[in-house]
Amino acid sequence: MNLLHVDATTAELPEPQPKPTSVSGQLESAISVWADAVTDTGVWECGPGEFTADRSGATEVCHIISGSGTVVGEDGTSAAIGPGTLLVLPRGWRGTWFVTEAIRKTYVMVGA
């Protein structure tokens, strides 16, 4: 098995596409770096705006590389996010991302 390495700050992403859960017409782009039957990891980018997220089937761990915003759970808890933020959205979490400056992150989805 080979070691995988990607510079997430400069990785070239595909042409952005409309984000299906955006309420403001955002575009997103992502590359999967590695995946198996239950795990997916990669680099993701999304422009400013608002979108909903539902982690009913998987836990997401992400590290914000650039950009800023706020993530608000359905229970009212919130977190300001920016470069260096490590965010865990546990299985069952639902909420809204408010992106104020385009966000680039690395992610690991477990249980997907």
TrEMBL record:
Region ranges (Disordered): 1-24
Residues of the (S)-ureidoglycine aminohydrolase cupin domain: 36-107
SUPFAM superfamilies: RmlC-like cupins
UniProt-listed PANTHER family: CYTOPLASMIC PROTEIN, CYTOPLASMIC PROTEIN-RELATED
Source organism, top-level taxon: Bacteria
Coiled coil: none
Protein's recorded name: Cupin
Gene3D superfamilies the record matches: Jelly Rolls
